[in-house]
Each structure stands twice: as C-alpha cells, then as structure tokens.
Amino acid sequence: MKLEKILENVPILARKNFSDIDIEQICYSSRQCAPNSLFVAIKGYRTDGHDYIDDAIARGALAVVHSSDLDVYKEDIIYIQTPDSRKMLPVMGSNFYGHPSEYLTTFVATGTNGKTTSCSIARHIFATFGKKTALSTGVGFFIGDETVHVDRTTPESLDLQQFLRQAVDIGSEYFFMEASSHGIYLSRVAQTRFDCAAFSNLTHDHLDFHETMENYYQVKKSLFLTDPPYTIINIDDPYGERLAAELKERGKSKILTYSFHKDSDYVLGDFQQGGWKQSFNFRGPNIDTTFHLPMGGLYNAYNASAGIIYALQKNIPLSVITTAIETYTPAFGRMNRIHYNGYDILIDYAHTPDGLQKFLTGVKGNTKNRLISVFGCDGNRDVNKRPMMGRIAYDISDIAILTHCHPRCEDNMDVLNQVRTGFPDEEHVHVFADRVDAVKFALSLAQPGDSVALAGLGHYRYVERNNQFLPYNDEDTVRALLNLPKAES
User: Which of 159, 226, 266, 359 could crosslink 258 through cysteines, CB 3.0-4.6 Å?
Assistant: First the structure.
C-alpha cells in the first residue's frame, strides 16, 4: 500500500525525505521489521520504541513514524512526526487493513472479570445458529479452525486490525472480543466499530496502573461513549448501575440491563447448582425460560446473560440459544474441571479479589466435602489486593495453599508474605515458593468428595520471573503429576 494512503487522517507535524513509496508491512516492534516496512515508534511504559529506530532500519524499515524529536535523521529513510504515535497506530492499521470492522458485526465485553466467558458464550450461541464467527480473548484468537496464542487480553491495535481483516477474509459475519482497561486506555480498540458493548462488573484491580477506582471506571466508561447501537449492562454491580444511568442520560444507544436483584430489562432468578452445572430462570420482553449451563458458579449465570440478550436482539431463535447454553464448553483456563479418583480439580484464571471470591464460592457450591485452594498474587502489580485475597482464601477454603503466580521482578517471598498477612491465623495457610510443589501437595491431600481449586494462572502457558518467560501451565502440571494424558488447548 502507498505510504500516503496509510497516513490518511494522521496529523503530521513534520516530514523528512518524504516519498509516496510502497509499504508491505507496518511494525511497532523493531524485531518484526523486514524490507519495505514502516516502523511506528511508540513510547511505552517499560521501553521506548524511539530507542529501536536504528534496529528497525537495519532490518529493512524504509519509513519511520515517531513522536519525539530525533538526534539523527538518515538521508535514505523517510521520517513522519506525529503528536502521538501510539494513538495514530490504530488509524494507520485500519487504513492498511482496509477498515475491516466496517464489514463485521462486532460484540465487545469489558469489566474486571467475566470477559472471556461472556465473549465465548456469546460466540457459541451465534455459531450454533450457523453464523461464521471469530473470537479474540486473552486465551487466544480463534478464527476458523485456527488458534493464535496471544500475550494480552486485548491485542495491540495493529494486531487487532489484522485479526479483524483475517476474519473478514474468511467470510466471518460476527466478531467477539474483550476490551481490557489497558486496551481501552492505550487506544488498542480505537478505530474498531462496535455493534454491541457489554459491561460485566468493576472491582478492585489494576490500581497500580489507574491509581483510583474512579479513574478505572472512567476508562471503562469511555468505551461506551463511542455509542454502539446496543449496550448491555449488569446492574447488580454498583458501577454497572451507575453506568446504565449515565448512558441513559446520553440517550444514544439502546441500553439493556440485567439483574438478579433489581428492576431491569431482563430479570434472572431461581439459581440452582450442583454436580458442576447450574440452572437459572431468565425473564424479559418475550422470554420466560430456564437455562441449563454446564458450569458451576453464580457468576457464570451473569457471564451468560450478555450473550443471551444480544442473541435475542439479533433474532436468534430461543431454541437455538437454549441448545447453545446447554452445550457450551468452558474456555481454556476458565472453570476447567478434571475428575480423578473421586475428587475434582478446578482450574481458573481468578486473579483478583472479586474473581477469587466468586471462583472459590462457585467451587464450594459444587463440592461435597472439603475445598482445597491453591492461589497467589502477581509480583510488580497492585500490592493492596494481596492481603484481601489472603483473607478470601482463608474465609472460603477448608485448606488454603499459598504460592506464586507471576513473580516478575519482585522477590517471590515478599509477595507471599504480604498475601499471608490477610490470614487472621497464619498457621492455617501452607506456603510453597514453588507452584509445582504447591499443586503436588494439594493433590496429596485430596480425598473423594473434595475439590482442589487452582486459581490465578488459568490459560497461561508460562510464568514470568526476572524478565524470563518460563514454561508452565496448571492443567499440564496436574496431568503430569497424575499421569493423565495432556489436554488439547
């Protein structure tokens, strides 16, 4: 594509050595650069892309988009300076890939917890109806029979535009995706047109980044200020109730609410669970039925609701929705269950206070005897949630085992000791510096009727420690320890 075409709607402060050359690839990492590529230098929180311009050029970049002034400009390289290269990356990406979201009907879910399951259930409903779909979650990008593993809940804007283009090219009609608060704030979802935005909840998380819950809320709210035709909100969450009220005052979207406890467009009730499945009644305009979902946990009734409501708006028959809910298979790392020797092992990404509380409560509601929990907290992240999660594990578990998640560059034992302060009686928590040892100990304690709940890593296939990504997965570890076949993911 011609460079001038890629730069449409990009404000430009200065150009040097400009020529309308052909560009074959846009890159924001110098390592991705190849001959005839355009390198976009982005100032990040850990590294600054401007420091890698020479590396990008050495790998074949012929043009550079930058925001900071440079010390050196090479005569055979094109330089384009823009006020904010990060905010312009989605504009260039959308131009390069032909504005793909204009050819898709896109559903986006946001909230602290539940995004992956909400999107996955919604997609399953539409796929059951025969619609061709694609899905982008923290677990991966799913298109046709292909799965692409990703490193972020919400892909970088350029990668997202590429995923959207691939979905269009194979004939997808619907695209389902998560939007994290980081993804919204860092413009990763900019230039993507949404047909529906769903809000699940807002609870304590990411305050190392957002600093306050109000900042966190305002970032989430900004997604809805793009005014998608449909907005679906859980108003049992206090921030959801606030969001619905504020958006109704705007009056630009069709606001649809759901709740177990409040006056809402769709009312849930009669929740029952047992045997790792649940049922709940669902009432609203032209619907009064009971759904049966093969997952435990009240929170998964909430997670299913946004997809059900959206499907109803798109006139998918109730019989199809009912069948889809009954046949749903949990996403990898989300309430995954292994039954072994009369006890159950549950694996989930629950990594926030609210997520851990809901996960452990859901597991306990399906457990005959004891709940044995294995959990931890990330290093170099919000320290305030550490004792909170310790107290939650203490209150709900019969046996609590504390271990690491991603230590990153923080001392592992410092993190564990901070979590342990949440236990009123520190003698009632078992601490293991190594997660494999923690899982092995939990399995050694398990008896028929017990449940072992592994929280915090879920779908992750690595542990981040001292800037290294070390191969690890909870389910793989369990299966290896129990000599069970490795699962497909």
Answer: 266
